[in-house]
């Protein structure tokens, strides 16, 4: 019976930021505090466009009111790590009046060694 000697897991994350355009929805929206639609407006929009596909997460931040995240991403990464990553990268270019869409591609990489 083979035993696992060494197990490592890595997540490779690529992020693309661009200005939000009505539809299509992508993986994440960053909603500024004075954006044309607020968190509640974003909730109604995603409920109409893609019911049960996104979570709205209200944020304590200087310029960002909320982020809208595709639920499948939250199943792949812990919520706090994903939110921190989104705020770290998106917060660099977001301002109070903007809505940014963000594309996130997650590739899970697993490497194992076994006795042979």
From TrEMBL:
It comes from the Bacteria. This is Uncharacterized protein. It comes from Crassaminicella thermophila. The lineage of its organism: Bacteria, Bacillati, Bacillota, Clostridia, Eubacteriales.
